[in-house]
DnaJ-domain-containing protein
Amino acid sequence: MEEDLYAVLGVHKTATSAEIKKAYHKAALASHPDKVPEEEREEAEVRFKVVSQAYEILSDDSQRSLYDRHGMDAFTKGRAPSYEDDFQDFFGFGGGPGFRDNGYGGSQFGSKPRTENAQFEISISLKNAYIGKTEKMSIKRNIVCQTCKGSGAKSTAKPRKCGHCKGAGVVPGHMPIGGGMSIQVNRNCPVCAGSGNIVKDKDKCKKCKGKMILEETKIIEVYIPPGIQDGEKIVKKGMADEAVRQETGDIIFIINIEKHDQFTRVGNDLRATINITLVEALCGLDRQIIQHLDERVLRLKVPPGKVISPGKILLVEGEGMPIKSGPNAGGRGDLYLDIDIEFPKDNWFADRSEMRRVADSLTFPPSKPVYTPKSETDAPPIEDMVAFNLVDSDAEFGKYEGYHGEDNEDDWDDEEEEQGAECATQ
Ligand SMILES: [Zn+2]
Ligand SMILES: [Zn+2]
C-alpha cells in the first residue's frame, strides 16, 4: 500500500470527517462491484477494497493521525508492534474476525477468505408451491479431508511448516490497480497450496492423497414452504465447497415455479376459468365447480334469481395461495374465477314454439335508440339489411393494415360464404 489515502477518496488532507464520509460514499458507489459490467468487476472489487480501506483509516481519528505521521508504514505488519494485533484483525492476517459480509460475498479486507456460493435452480409445480414440499437435492461438493483435518499428512507424520508462508497458508501479495497504486491482498501460498505444511510423499494422507480435499455427493433436503414465490431463494448456509482455511460459502436454491394449465398466480391470488351453461347463468347453479391445487373439489351455489352475465367474475375469498410472510402471513389469497358461458348451438329448439316461450319469458327494456334525432325532420341515412358473418375470432382484425408496396386488388367481397345472413332476415 503505497498510495495516498486522501487521493484515493479525492479529498484534501485537511478534509473534515463529514467530507471524508461523503467522498467515501461517492467513491464506494462508483466502484461497487455490483454496479459495474462483468468484465470490470475484478478491477472494481480491488478498487472498492482500496476505497474502503482508505475510509477505515481516515474515518478513525487515532488511525488517521497515525497515518498522517507515518504513512502506511504505521499499518505495515512488524513495524508498529503496538498495532500488530489490531492490524491482524483489521486486515485479516491470521484469520481474525476482520470485516466480513460486506454484501458481495467476499471479505472486505482479505480477511479469512470464503469459498464461492453455489446456486441451483429447483423447479416445482404450482401445486407443490401451494401445498409445500421437501425436495431432495443431490449435490457434489468439495470437503476438507477429515482424516488429515486438511493437513494432507498422515497423523503419524510430522509435517514441516511451509517456509514460504511460515505456516500461514497465505502470502501477502500486491495487486496493481492502475495509476501506480497497488493493494495488498492475501493469496494462497503457491508452495504449500494453502495448507501451511510441506508433506513428504510417504507421509501424505492416504484418504486424500495429500490433496487435503475430497469430493462428496451429499443429499440435501430443501424444505419448500407452502406459498413460496417464483424466484425466491432458499439459502443453506455453509454448504458450498469447503476449502482449507476458508470459510464455506452458501448454497443458494432458486425456486422456479412451472406454469399451470388451469391456474395462474399473481402475488398470492389465483385465477382460473370455469365453464357454465347459459341456463346456469340465467337460472343459478349448485354444483362442483372446480378442483383446487390440493385436490379439494369446490362446490358452490348461485341461487336462482342471481344472473351471471358475461364479464362477471366469481371471487372466492381465502381460496388463493397460502401467504408465507408479511402482514397477512398465515392467511390465504383469493381465487378469481372467470366465467365462460356456454351457449346452445344453432337451432337449439325442437320447434319454434319453444323458442317463443323462452323469448316470452325473458323480458328486457326496449333497446336504446342508436341515434337521437335533433329535430322532427332530422334522420340519419339508414343502411338496410347489412350483410355479416358470425365468426369465432378476431384474428383477421386489422388485416387491411396499410400499403405494402403494391396495389392490391379489391378481393374482400368474394372471400367467404355469407353464413348467418339468414338470421338477419328473421
Ligand atoms: Zn487427508
Ligand atoms: Zn506455504
Remarks:
- Residues 77-110, 414-426 have pLDDT under 50 and may be disordered.
